[in-house]
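README: folding subset

This subset contains proteins for which both the sequence and a predicted structure token string are available. Records are stored as plain text. Below is the entry for PAS domain-containing protein (462 residues), shown exactly as it appears on disk.
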Amino acid sequence: MQGFINSKEFISFCHIAFDNVPIAIDFLDKDGRMVYINKAFSDFLQIPIEDMLGKMVTEINPTSKFLLSLDKKKADIAVRHTFPNGKEAICHRIPIFDSSGNLMGGLGMILFEEIEEMKEILREYEILDKKLKLYQNEIARLNNARYTLSDIIGDSESILLCKRKVKKVANLNLNVLIKGESGVGKELFAQAIHNESDRANMPFISINASAMPENLLESELFGYEPGSFTGAKSEGSIGKFELANGGTIFLDEIADMPYHMQAKILRAIEEREIVRIGSNKPTPIDVRIISATHKNLEEMVSQNKFRGDLYYRLDVLNLEIPPLRERVEDIPQLSEIFLTRFNKEYGFYRRLSKDAMDILTSYHWPGNVRELGNVLGKACVNADDPTINAGDLPDNLFIDSIIKENKDDSGLYHIIRKVEKKLIEDALRQSNNNKAEAARILKIPRMTLYRKIEDLKIEIEE
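--- output ---
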């Protein structure tokens, strides 16, 4: 087998396989003699094939390291070499062995005939690599769809209905409009829809129209080319629609989207493509749009404050999230989840008293679940005991619950007396029933406090 490379069969095979290949190729026998050279190799060296056949490689190329590769029986891959005609190239020098491991010869190949050609490819690779890393970093930063259906807390009929609808719409691959007051958890539901869908392993990219300056919205949504405007990044920027390609884009507070931007979003939906600022080249996109609002879009359409054609494109499917006051039966379960989180974060062990829970379930919660979490977070910090009592909750919750309880059968006088009683009881509790200290907390004379304690029939444990 050691003489196979010199055989007529092998040489004939090489002529058929490599003569017209545009890559420069030569074969040496085990002693380093050139037994085959293709036309591309001959053209590169500018030496006729017949002047090289049968000669030692070092006769043709005195600086060749091919004999060293054969001697050490180890390939040299992608090495830089300068040939006798002054050309530089990236080469392979590969020893060839038979099935028993005996050296048969070697294969030479010029990978890049010009170093500049390779440098240009490397430059292009670096540019593409930077763009890839930019995409990866942006997606990693923005892809925050961490909530699933199991994270939606509550067993009320209204929430169970919403959960069932999420399951129903998730895989329909149609745009969804989520409606609900501020703080009800619209983004949580948007993420749950994404994670229940066939797009779950693709990006979930969100943008809040009300939180973004109007002059930056277009570049954020559609991206821009390098040097498109003053202050633009030198490498350009990828827009949210491109980042969401294959996945979901969540347009929060869509009602606050400027009117002129609504037309651009409509075009992206209809054409399934976007155009970056500073470019005229369209980029195809495949995204599902989930949008959300706490405003009445139908009314805004009738007032020409929101485009009707965009509204109908967004509201293909819709989901309405109930306010917390309409599902008070979920408040104990939600409170437990919040307390567990805060206890872990702050190193506390807090629990709610019955009186405190009664106040939470009586309050009307204009800020919904977000406000509940805020109230409980403050109560955890403010409470002096493991049990969070009614007095640890903000006064506006207590006042609201009193008004709600007495709105039908009590006048203002009785409501004020109940509020006064609650504030004095809180001050006494904080001062360990020290009346002088309680009066200082309330910023009233001590004698006034004594009189009110007697008048309001407040019992003090001595």
